[in-house]
Predict the 3D structure of the following.
Amino acid sequence: MTKSKTNDPILFEGQEQIKIWPPYEVFYLECIKTASLNAIEVWEALNELVLDENKNKIVAVDLAENIVNQAGIISKFFFPPVDQKNSKKLIHRLRAEKLREAFKIDDNKELSKRTFRNYIEHFDEKLDLFLNKAIAGNIIPLKTVFLSSEDINEVTYVFKAYIINEFKFISLNEQIILPKLVDEIYSVYNQCIEFLDNGGRLK
């Protein structure tokens, strides 16, 4: 077997293209496992916080945002930015294809949505646009916790918030519902453990 030049896909002899050099699969597994475990631990902490009547619920906003950030990290491994004109991106596309095949993640999954990746990569730009609008209403600049969406009317603009009864994270008036996303992250984490127990190899 021979390795190709930097930024080119690794090839077998005879130029048969492979997507991830088999001994290197474990590196991707460890990265995805770490981000998944972080998200799971934060989700569990978030639910404990909400159930504890003695704790300040405002921390829920930070915990919910952390889950979204970890989801963005995980999503990039499976769905990297696509630029068909840039041949140097091929190595990333091939890696993502291999991971999606192994984890059985398709375009219908929550992690396929660009919401999470865009959130962590373009938040500054989204904030510029959010503040550049001519807004008539009530802007809440601080982190806020609501019990339900009914507490937010149509002229209320939210910076960052968590809706307890609906498990929703809101940022710049965009909503991300967490349970379905977290279920998918649990699945990814469990598969990582299975692959790592199998010698760090993808199926």
